[in-house]
Write a structure and sequence with these properties.
10 strands, four-stranded antiparallel β-sheet, 234 residues, 28% strand
């Protein structure tokens, strides 16, 4: 792998991920630079979510490496906000909308539940309003609709203003009235953070992104403005 420059933040070298006899990713190499907006699409079961989890170091690849960089130097971690697919969330956990959003400021710490400082409370309040869930703040997540939960989880992902935001199907389950707001939020994020986004709906997203990947167990970078299959790429 080449020596990193100051723009490189994530580099994956020849990553392969296998689940038993099933091959999810096959010899994928990539580099992501600070400020990139990477839009990812591809067929169901093609390994898109596996790729994201591997880049986030939530999954250890069967072979290959994932490295993080900051100012040209290798680092162990980066400030990343992550919206997983809703199916990965246990909504039986007795936690409120406000607490879920607030947890994005404190990570895995268990010390955040309780009274917040005025500055933190204002940050939580503004994020709840941005996501359109302020009136649901005291509701437990098990009582939410799919779209309400998705917006809550998006609030958790972005509340800390991370330098890198990873969104796995952010439009899933979201009601039609809020989709335009999601697009605006995504566009705003892309102006101040590196963005990696998986979506089946590329019509609007592709106009915002500067890089386009198709993942179907391998990775192909596409240079067409609208793409769903490798054959549609320039």
């Amino acid at each position: 792998m080449r020596s990193p420059d100051n723009d490189l933040i994530i580099a994956a070298g020849h990553i392969t991920v296998e689940y038993g006899s099933a091959l999810a990713l096959d010899d994928v190499s990539l580099e992501i630079n600070a400020g990139d907006f990477v839009a990812i699409t591809g067929p169901n079961g093609g390994g898109k979510s596996t790729l994201l989890k591997t880049l986030l170091k939530l999954i250890k690849p069967t072979s290959g490496t994932v490295e993080y960089y900051e100012n040209g130097a290798s680092v162990e971690s980066l400030h990343i906000g992550y919206l997983p697919q809703k199916s990965n969330i246990d909504n039986r956990f007795p936690i409120t909308v406000e607490e879920v959003v607030a947890s994005g400021l404190y990570g895995d710490s268990r010390n955040w539940r309780g009274k917040f400082s005025d500055a933190v409370q204002e940050k939580i309040d503004s994020t709840l309003r941005l996501m359109g869930v302020a009136d649901l703040r005291k509701r437990v997540i098990g009582s939410l609709s799919g779209g309400q939960l998705q917006r809550t989880l998006l609030g958790r992902a972005v509340i800390s203003d991370p330098g890198i935001v990873v969104l796995d199907e952010p439009l899933s389950y979201v009601d039609h009235n809020f989709i335009e707001q999601i697009y605006k939020i995504v566009e705003d994020i892309s102006h101040h953070a590196t963005l990696i986004l998986v979506s089946h709906e590329m019509t609007v997203i592709s106009e915002m992104a500067n890089r386009h990947w198709i993942v179907d167990h391998t990775l192909h970078e596409c240079h067409a403005s609208h793409h769903y299959l490798k054959t549609e790429c320039d």
